[in-house]
Structure formats: C-alpha cells, structure tokens
Amino acid sequence: MEKVKQWEDIKNDFEAGSLLLGNGASMAVSDKFGYGSLFDEATKLGHLTKPVLKVFKSFDVEDFELVLRRLWQAKKVNEALDIEVAVVDKSYQIVRKALIATVRDIHVTYQEAEEHLEHIYLFMKSFKKVVSLNYDLIVYWAAMLGNRSDHSLFKDCFNGERKFGSWRDKVGTLFFYPHGNLVLRRSNFSGAKKIVTGDSSQLLDSILDKWVNKDLAPAFVCEGTQESKEQSISSCDYLEKVFYEVLPNLESNLVIYGWAMAEQDGHLIEQISKSKPENVAVSVYNNNEVFMGQVEKQLKDIGVKKVIFFDSESAGAWNQPSTDYIKAKKDEADALKKAVNKVLKKVKH
Predict the structure, then answer these.
(1) Among the listed residues 295, 331, 345, the one whose alpha carbon sits nearest the alpha carbon of residue 20
(2) What's the CA gap between 244 and 82, in Å, rounded?
(3) Which of 15, 115, 183, 333 is 20 to 30 A off residue 227, Cα-Cα?
(4) How far apart are CA 130 and CA 19, in angstroms?
(5) Number of Cβ within a 10 Å radius of residue 104
(6) pLDDT higher for 212 or 193?
(7) Contact at 8 Å (CB) between 279 and 308?
C-alpha cells in the first residue's frame, strides 16, 4: 500500500473535481458530532420519554424523520376522511419536540464552529461539486462565509421561492445534501423547501424556532438501514433529484473526506459508481491501514483506477490551515511587530 500523502502534495490533481463529505468532517470541527445516532443521543439526554419510545417501537425504526413523516401523513389522511386526529397529532408533537431538544443539545453554535469555517470554505472552493452526507450546518455556514468574505460562488441551487431548481447550468461550487439537512423542511407530502434567515450566525436558532412555532418537519435522513434510507429518499423530491441526478454525475476526480463507506451506505456507492470516478483521494486518520485496505477494495470494485490516501490533518485539508495561510499570518504578524518596534524607537529618541 502506498504511503499516506499530504493534501497539499496532491491537491492540484483534484482541482475542479468533486468532494464528498462524511461524518468525520463534522467530527473534525467538534467531537459533539461523534455520537452513534440521534436516537441514541436523545435516549441518553432523556428526551425520549415512554410515550415517544412507544411511537418509535410501533414503527420498528429509530429514524426521527421517518416517524415524523408517517405521523404527519396519517394526520393528513385522517383529516381528509374526517377521522379524529388528536391522538396522532399528539404523538407527532411529542416526537417533534424530542427531536428539537436533541438537536439543540448536540449541535455546535456558529461561534463554536467559526474558527474552522474560513479554512473549510477555502478547501471547498476548489471543487465543482460538494456533496455532504451530514445534516448539520457546517457546510452551509462555511459556504455563506465564503460568499461574503471573498465573493466565492457557492450555490445550493435553491431559487427565490426556496425550491430546488436547475443545477446543470450553474457555475461556481455547487453543494448538495443526499440525506437532507437542517436547512431543509418538508413541504406537503413529497416536497422540500429551504429555511432561510438574514444572519447565518443565528440560523440554528431560527430553524429550531420555526420548527416550534410554525409546526415544520425536517427533511433529513437521521440514520437507519440502507433500505430505510432509500425509502426516505424516494419520499422527497429534493433527495430524489440529488440521488438520481447529482451523484451519478460527479467529476472523474473525486475527494472523499470523513466518510467510512459503511454497509448501510451501499445505495450511495452504487450511484457514485455511475459517475465512473477514475482517481479518488480518501482522507485517513492516524494511518489506519485496516480502513485503507477496506476502502481501496470497495473503490476498486466499482472501477476506480487510482486510489490515493491523504492525512486528514495535513495542511490545507478541510479545516486545517494551509501552508500559504500560515505563512501569510506569520508575515502579517512580523510586519506588525516591525511597525511597533519602529514606533518605539522613535519614541525613545
């Protein structure tokens, strides 16, 4: 097996390629994202009361989004048939409140993530497409900072009506969420719309407040088996478009950061294989040879010609400062120090 590379030694080979992000990308920002599942975390935090657990058990799943969707649909059907909806609505509200409380407890604030965001958007901006499997707001926050700070062209392809539109004719760095995201909400039976606010730093609070006050349901796949994830994807027009249109049309040069390519992700691997990636760079933490062996085999099995592994904590990778960034900051500090010394000399004389 080849030696693990440094990101800056290979980055030029993947410029204008595609980037796929897994949970390891979020964990690099905060270990708060290192939990096994939202369901497990909600249980540990005490948000899953006996009535809530009873609802999950009735569906034999641990996916908040799926349970909420089914309860909401049941409520709508009952209303149409003039059947009492109080019991269904109560169950829906109980589960929704548990999800809101859990997300509020485990998601980092903008201020906690802020020190990472500049490095993240500088990393992302060299790619044509960014595909994030994470439901959290890290990618969105970084993209909005990039657009504000240096006029980068990050686009999520939602139009003025906050609906997902055409993406094939867009220029810049396009970013997508195959499993949904906190910025997305359910709209009727199969639609999804974007939740927006004027201040990115207040986005998390705005989302949770709108869930509470406007009875919104999230559009993201929390966890579950491959089959349950596929069912959730087929229930949402946005998720279907990303799954069937974007994933099979990634660039031939692909970078994977923080994705373990687990058994339950087979549906994603199959779609990605349709884009026929030729060269794939995969981040690795602590030179994990077992992981590298497993991933290399999975990628070779779908026809990838060249697999390269790079250190997830090397300069310029994801949230790590690049060599140029470090040098620029050092030069800036040196220049300031010289200016101060010059003033002090004048004062002494």
Answers:
(1) 295
(2) 37
(3) 183
(4) 5
(5) 15
(6) 193
(7) yes
Residue with tokens 């906690």: 112
Look-up of token digits 């829906």:
92
- Other beta carbons within 10 angstroms of residue 109's beta carbon come to 13
Residue bearing tokens 């993209």 = 143
Is the pLDDT at 178 greater than 90, yes or no? yes
Q: Which two tokens stand for residue 322?
A: 């690049």
Paired strand residues for 344: none
Rounded CA separation 262/247 (Å): 17
Classify strands 180-187 and 218-220 as parallel, antiparallel or unpaired.
Answer: antiparallel
Residue 339's identity, in one-letter code, is A
- The answer to whether the predicted template modeling score (pTM) of the entire model surpasses 0.85 is yes
Q: Is 64 a residue whose pLDDT tops 70?
A: yes
- Hey, how many other C-beta atoms are within 10 angstroms of the C-beta on 312? 22
Q: Give residue 133's pLDDT.
A: 95
3-state SS assignment for residue 54 = helix
User: CA 35 to CA 155: how far, in whole Å?
Assistant: 29
In angstroms, the CA 47 to CA 53 distance is: 10
Tell which wins on pLDDT, 300 or 59: 300
Q: How far apart are CA 85 and CA 32, in angstroms?
A: 37
Smallest Cα–Cα separation from 20: which of 132, 141, 135?
132
For residues 342 and 314, the answer to whether their CB atoms sit within 8 Å is no
329 CB-contact burial (10 Å; exposed 0-12 / middle 13-18 / buried 19+): exposed
The H or E element that residue 97 is part of is helix 86-106
Nearest to 189 by CA among 135, 237, 245, 224: 237
The rounded mean pLDDT for the chain is 91
Rounded to 5°, angle at Cα 178 from 101 and 258: 80
Beta-bridge partner residues of 187: 191
| 3 state SS of 343 | helix
What CA–CA distance (Å, rounded) separates 230 from 41?
Answer: 23
